[in-house]
Amino acid sequence: ATRTNSRKVGDEFVINGGKMWITNCGHANWFFVFTRSDPDPKCPANRAFTAFVVDADAPGVTVGRKEWNMGQRASDTRGVTFEDVVVPAENIVGEYGGGFKVAMRCFDKTRPTVGAMSLGLARRALDEATKYSMERKTMGKPIFMHQAVNFLLADMAMRYELAKLGVWRSCADYDEGRRNTYYASIGKLYGGLAANKNASDAVQVFGGNGYNKEYPVEKLMRDAKIFQIYEGTDQIQKLIIGREHMTKWL
């Protein structure tokens, strides 16, 4: 992504490069584009990047085909390329060279929303597994009455409730104007974990039926994985959480 560059030409800027995996790309009227504006590799990140608003119909902007992904297939996900795209200086978001700070502030707002989506999937997986466990019977009783299945449901409920606390805390801090970087990463990370594990456990509760497309949980399992990738991978979230934690001690 940082190979996309911008250079100043007179009173305007020229952007070249490309971005991939852009959500709703085919429907967008404009793009928020993060570019490297200082080619010096030794330039600090907080001065090396500039963010722009770029009209989707600007000359040189090419939107790619819709990607067919493992899950979340209703999402219009595409790549977009920029070939000598000219944008005026007034389209800079924030300050010239201050794009990194803009991006980090955006993540503080978007990561809680990804965490919230994860919560929805985690809850759906729990609900589907619970309903199925009440309908499916073995040895003369519903399977939720077997301790092994009941423990799976208990774990799913616990993960959902704990993830909800992290997401809600990050949203509350943002609404109150407090820096929420720490809780935004915690909510996003644990929300993704809850979604993935709950989806997997739901398939387990369904047994062989869970592996079949006639039942809803196999789709949940495919949809869940992206929550551990977009808006910063789980590994990036751990780096942020560790850094933010240590700043309280150093």
Secondary-structure map:
Layout: E1 5-9, E2 12-23, E3 30-36, H1 45-48, E4 49-55, E5 61-63, E6 77-88, E7 92-93, H2 99-135, E8 137-138, E9 141-142, H3 147-175, H4 181-206, H5 217-224, H6 234-247
Antiparallel strand pairs: 1-2, 2-6, 3-4, 4-7, 5-6, 8-9
Helix pairs in contact: 2-3, 2-4, 2-5, 3-4, 4-5, 4-6
Explain this structure:
It is built from six helices and nine strands. It is elongated, with a radius of gyration of 22 Å. The protein is an alpha+beta fold. The chain starts with a strand and ends with a helix. The strands form three sheets. The chain has a four-stranded antiparallel sheet, with no helix packed on it. A three-stranded antiparallel sheet has the order 3-4-7. The protein has helices at residues 45-48, 99-135, 147-175, 181-206, 217-224, 234-247, and strands at 5-9, 12-23, 30-36, 49-55, 61-63, 77-88, 92-93, 137-138, 141-142. Helices cover 47% and strands 21% of the residues. The model has no long low-confidence stretch (mean pLDDT 96).
Biggest sheet, open or closed, and with what strands and sense?
A: 4 strands, antiparallel
Kindly state the number of beta strands.
Answer: 9
- As a whole number of angstroms, the C-alpha radius of gyration is 22 Å
Average pLDDT over all residues: 96
Can you give keywords for this protein?
250 residues; alpha+beta; four-stranded antiparallel sheet; 9 strands; 21% strand
Offer a concise description of the structure.
With 250 residues, the chain is α+β, with helices and mostly antiparallel strands. The protein has helices at 45-48, 99-135, 147-175, 181-206, 217-224, 234-247; strands spanning 5-9, 12-23, 30-36, 49-55, 61-63, 77-88, 92-93, 137-138, 141-142.
